[in-house]
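Colleagues,

For the teaching module next term, I've prepared a clean inverse folding example: a structure given as tokens, and then the sequence designed for it. I'd like students to try predicting residues themselves before seeing the answer, so please don't circulate the second half yet.
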């Protein structure tokens, strides 16, 4: 469970304190503030973010992986969180660094985590959502085999602005032609 390998060659491994610099760089763009429930603006914030991922893994409520590039540095994150074993469900999230965007990192990582969640965790349904004004995230979801299910109006609020979210899901028995 500690490491996964995507067929595309990306290594996924648990987050380590040594990744703090990479996390800090990843959270530098303003839009990344939305990917964390607390600020990641300095080394202490990056270490706290990593520690939270480690706690979730220990509690078996969430599993986050660093997607590692050729140089061994974390270039993205994929996770299945909000794991509900009674219902066999989980919530998938992902992000990549600016330098990694457009290289297939996120869809490869999401597909690898979905295979793991369906196999190792025995989950049946994985869900994810993206703001409707984020077509790149929608492309990741579709490329990873997640079917669109509908729009959740006004679901997210950032500052004074509310955003609609498109929900996607993938079931363990979906035929997605790349597993």
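(Answer key — instructors only)
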């Amino acid at each position: 469970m500690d490491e996964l390998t995507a067929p595309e060659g990306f290594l996924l491994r648990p987050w380590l304190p040594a990744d703090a610099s990479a996390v800090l760089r990843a959270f530098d763009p303003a839009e990344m503030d939305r990917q964390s429930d607390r600020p990641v603006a300095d080394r202490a914030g990056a270490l706290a973010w990593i520690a939270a991922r480690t706690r979730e893994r220990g509690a078996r409520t969430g599993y986050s992986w660093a997607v590692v590039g050729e140089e061994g540095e974390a270039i993205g994150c994929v996770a299945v969180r909000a794991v509900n074993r009674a219902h066999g469900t989980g919530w998938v999230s992902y992000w990549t660094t600016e330098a990694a965007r457009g290289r297939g990192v996120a869809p490869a990582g999401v597909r690898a985590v979905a295979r793991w969640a369906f196999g190792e965790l025995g989950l049946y349904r994985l869900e994810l959502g993206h703001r409707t004004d984020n077509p790149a995230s929608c492309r990741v979801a579709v490329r990873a085999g997640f079917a669109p299910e509908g729009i959740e109006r006004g679901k997210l609020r950032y500052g004074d602005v509310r955003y609609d979210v498109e929900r996607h899901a993938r079931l363990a028995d979906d035929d997605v032609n790349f597993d």
